[in-house]
Amino acid sequence: MFIVVLNQTNLVADGQNNKLIYKFPNSVIFKDKFVAVQSIAMFYSWNNISSSQVNNTIVYTWTSGSIINTYTIAIPDGLYDIVALNNLLQFNFINNGTYWISGTQNVYPFEIVVNVNRYAVQLNTYYIPTSLPVGASTPANFVGWPTTSQNSVVTFPANINIILGYTAGFTSAQNIGGSFVASGSYVAKNSANTISYISTTSPQVQPNSNVLFSLSNINNPYSQPSSIIYSLNPAGVGIGELVVDKPPNFAWCKLIDGTYNELRLSFLGTDFKPLVIGDPNMTILLAIRDKDEGWLGTK
Q1: Angle at 284 between CA 281 and CA 286, to 5 degrees
Q2: Measuring CA to CA, how many Å separate 173 from each of 99, 152, 155?
Q3: CA 88 from chain center: how many Å?
Q4: Which residue in 295, 288, 296, 297 sits closest to 32, CA to CA?
Q5: CA 129, CA 192: separation in Å to the nearest integer?
Q6: Which of 14, 26, 115, 194 could serve as a FRET partner for 150 with CA atoms 20 to 30 Å apart?
Q7: Chain centroid, CA 147 distance in Å
């Protein structure tokens, strides 16, 4: 059995950190050879929200007087849970001047929270009054009050809706003057005109919960794509932490017979598209064995 070591020196320098090329010192002949992943060490650093995945915007409105102002929040590429995403929304509300201050608390137009009991993401939109509530104040960049009390209209464009568990293009109710009537099991409205929505599908907060390893020179007639040799799951590892995986048993894959001067390893998401890895620090060990080493498995 032979061991091939791939690390950041083997990465293709395109900034995506998802393609490694191992060049043999000389051309080698593969004849009745098998390959398997022996060990993996890499950091959990692939984004769940990014411009490349086109899932990085949330849109909302705030009416000042009779003018409806529409704000598009561009979410920077990164790894977000629902709490972090809601914090980012609040940061944008402050920058846009679309909030007011009640005592020591900021009052924002809407929030997204985890509803554990429903296995869902809940959207709460709050009633915006026509004037400053008693005891409250406004920030220096406040955009103004609406002529008629209402809720902000929140829209989840395509792709971000998958993260949150809503239909593509979901739009909340404006509730002008409290006129919106809640209907259905996924919408509720209380006496303060707070409207709550529950996601209708399971939120895919991290769509790429597994990393698929795709290796050149593999031909698996039972798989599509035919080059997949392993799946890495970072279960139990926090964002930015080291993922260490050592398979208890090798899953040997047949290498295509022929003469080669390199092996190419790629990381794919669960949609089989290239997955951008943030941290290039990684070490992947591949084991290669001969057919007659049957004591290692798969004859």
Answers
A1: 165
A2: 19, 8, 10
A3: 15
A4: 288
A5: 11
A6: 115
A7: 39
Are 92 and 71 in contact by the 8 Å Cβ rule? The answer is: yes
Q: Tokens for 106?
A: 């900021």
Give yes or no for a contact between 295 and 235, defined as CB atoms under 8 angstroms apart: no
Rg of the chain over Cα atoms, rounded to whole angstroms, equals: 26
Q: Where in the chain is the domain with CATH 2.60.120.1100?
A: 2-46+208-296
Q: Which pair of tokens denotes residue 175?
A: 């509730």
Task: Identify any residues that bridge with 8 across adjacent strands, giving them in sequence order.
Answer: none
List CB contacts of 15: < 8 A, sequence separation 6 or more.
none
Residues 128/150, Cβ–Cβ less than 8 Å: yes
What strand order describes the sheet that includes 100-102? 105-107, 100-102, 136-137
Q: Are 285 and 5 in contact (CB under 8 A)?
A: yes
Q: Which three-class secondary structure state does DSSP give residue 82?
A: helix
State the Cα–Cα distance between residues 102 and 207, nearest whole angstrom.
38
Tens digit of each residue's pLDDT (9 = 90 or more) over 206-258: 888 899 999 998 978 888 888 999 999 988 888 889 999 999 899 999 999 99
8-24 tens-digit pLDDT: 999 999 999 999 999 99
Architecture of domain 2-46+208-296: Sandwich (2.60)
